[in-house]
TrEMBL record:
<keyword id="KW-0560">Oxidoreductase</keyword>
<dbReference type="InterPro" id="IPR036291">
    <property type="entry name" value="NAD(P)-bd_dom_sf"/>
</dbReference>
<dbReference type="Pfam" id="PF00106">
    <property type="entry name" value="adh_short"/>
</dbReference>
<dbReference type="GO" id="GO:0016491">
    <property type="term" value="F:oxidoreductase activity"/>
</dbReference>
<comment type="similarity">
    <text>Belongs to the short-chain dehydrogenases/reductases (SDR) family.</text>
</comment>
<protein>
    <submittedName>
        <fullName>SDR family NAD(P)-dependent oxidoreductase</fullName>
    </submittedName>
</protein>
<dbReference type="InterPro" id="IPR002347">
    <property type="entry name" value="SDR_fam"/>
</dbReference>
């Protein structure tokens, strides 16, 4: 069975995605800061018949990140890493003139530093994954033919390209190479690319995550790296950000899960995606800038 690590999985989008993957037979390693809600989520996931390891802890703790990856290794490997855990930096959100600097540091630590630390810890397992290659070529990539040529110089997909092709991947003058390892899904926000009043601290942290993801995609061409704007959702995070706003009309996190699963189903190329575009049928990266 494929294995995923999902941070921030006790509620919201993390919990909804965990349920979606469990319904497909994925084994899971899930984390959250609060043990009680995480254990409740894990009990529900267990009912689907998959293996679930629930590890409460803080993603800013290197020892906790190592434990998450070790648990995945015990389950057989790692095919998908989901960096979903997040903090706002100020609750409720405030203008930059009033933003506490310690809060900004916390937002950067959770939204940028911790995801990179977890990626670094997980890279050996992700590089060894063959999950996305297991589609057998039916839908191995989305978009252009990978950087591989046949004897007639016509493009043809090959899940095991020559090393020179891999080294050239991501260069400015080469078509995008699509590898066959695992995938990294970083949950971003439209606040990373739009200038919303009071969202400056959180948006800056997510913008940094976007750029970090883009560079990682170039440096690790054998992996898929997706950074996704899930759109507006009815979550505790949004309620804490803007407590006076009526979010009753906002969609539930469960409605976003099909968009994220589509990235897996189509083994989509690395890039920035908007859940709204994926749900509408578009699967090209960059749909939300």
């Amino acid at each position: 069975m494929p294995v995923a690590i999902i941070t921030g999985a006790s509620k919201g989008l993390g919990r909804a995605l965990a349920a979606g993957l469990a319904g497909r037979g994925w084994d899971l390693v899930v984390d959250a800061r609060s043990a009680g809600p995480l254990e409740a989520a894990a009990r529900e996931l267990h009912e689907t018949g998959v293996r679930v390891v629930a590890l409460p802890g803080d993603v800013t703790d290197g020892g906790h990140r190592a434990a998450l990856v070790a648990a995945a290794a015990e389950l057989g490997g790692l095919d998908l890493l989901v960096n979903n855990a997040s903090v706002l930096g100020a609750e409720p959100l405030v203008r930059l003139a009033d933003h506490p600097l310690d809060g900004l540091r916390a937002a950067l630590e959770v939204n940028v530093v911790a995801p990179l630390g977890l990626v670094q810890e997980a890279l050996p397992l992700l590089r060894a994954s063959s999950y996305l290659a297991s589609y057998g070529g039916d839908i191995p990539y989305v978009g252009e033919i990978p950087y591989i040529r046949g004897a007639d110089n016509a493009g043809a997909y090959d899940s095991h390209p020559y090393l020179s092709d891999v080294r050239n991947a991501g260069m400015y003058d080469s078509p995008p190479y699509v590898g066959t390892g695992g995938a990294i899904l970083n949950i971003s926000s439209d606040a990373a690319v739009e200038a919303y009043p009071t969202w400056g601290g959180y948006g800056a942290a997510k913008a940094a995550l976007d750029q970090q993801s883009a560079v990682l995609a170039v440096e690790e061409p054998g992996l898929r790296v997706w950074w996704v704007d899930p759109g507006d959702m009815r979550t505790d995070l949004y309620a804490a950000a803007v407590p006076d706003d009526d979010d009753s009309g906002r969609p539930l996190p469960e409605t976003v899960v099909p968009a994220l699963l589509r990235l897996l189903d189509e083994a989509a190329v690395s890039g920035r995606y908007a859940a709204a575009d994926l749900l509408a049928g578009a699967a090209d990266p960059g749909g939300s800038r």
